[in-house]
Design a protein that fits this description.
rod-shaped, five-stranded mixed beta sheet, single chain, alpha+beta, about 220 residues
């Protein structure tokens, strides 16, 4: 019996049996499918990149405080208030009212009514400069935080009140910021965008190469 003749090296890439002359193998279709999937993935990542900065800027903003940022009041008020652009969540809200020595004069939990958060103060707070450190959960469920200061000429008394809230133009230094952020959009977001942009470009290059190979 004559043993079968092994195929020549130049026959390993010949057109598979059953395909007409000039017809491309099925593997080409698979290459095209993989390439289109890569392009679709790149498009999804690109959309996420475009939507990321917009989402980062969608957090609630601080519209007003009482006492106003940097102001001097006659006496330490019974409470400090923060008016937000939207109604914050009461859960997770925290406001500290610190005197020059670092003592926190906040008393009890923060109360939220409509878009205003109120933090009562303990009686007996001394005169001097105060720093208010606040942290709230915005209406989009993301934490926002910030600080503002005021100075009291006299200590707290039973009749002391905070006074009306002022406009946002007067509290620019106390504008709400995303948690762990001291500016507009954190640098980590720009870094992430840069990394994702490189990934998108790489995916597009690979997809185009696969399409060219398929052709």
């Amino acid at each position: 019996m004559i043993p079968p003749v092994p195929p020549r090296a130049d026959e390993t890439n010949m057109t598979p049996r059953g395909l007409a002359a000039g017809q491309k193998p099925v593997r080409v279709v698979r290459h095209r499918g993989a390439a289109w999937r890569a392009l679709a993935g790149a498009a999804v990542v690109l959309l996420a990149l475009l939507g990321g900065p917009a989402a980062a800027q969608a957090h609630d903003q601080l519209d007003a405080t009482s006492p106003v940022q940097g102001s001097t009041v006659a006496a330490v008020p019974q409470a400090v208030t923060l008016a937000m652009s939207h109604t914050p969540a009461a859960i997770g809200a925290e406001v500290k009212v610190l005197d020059a020595g670092g003592t926190n004069w906040a008393s009890g939990p923060v109360s939220v009514l409509d878009n205003v958060a109120t933090q009562p103060l303990k009686s007996g707070a001394p005169a001097g400069k105060y720093t208010v450190e606040w942290r709230l959960v915005s209406s989009d469920s993301h934490p926002v935080e910030g600080t503002f200061t005021f100075t009291a000429r006299a200590g707290s008394s039973a009749g002391a009140v905070a006074g009306p809230a002022h406009s946002a133009q007067q509290v620019t230094e106390a504008v709400a910021q995303p948690a762990a952020d001291s500016g507009g959009i954190p640098w980590s977001v720009f870094g992430l965008i840069g990394v994702l942009a490189v990934v998108v470009i790489a995916m597009v290059v690979v997809a185009r190469r696969r399409l060219n190979q398929a052709d």
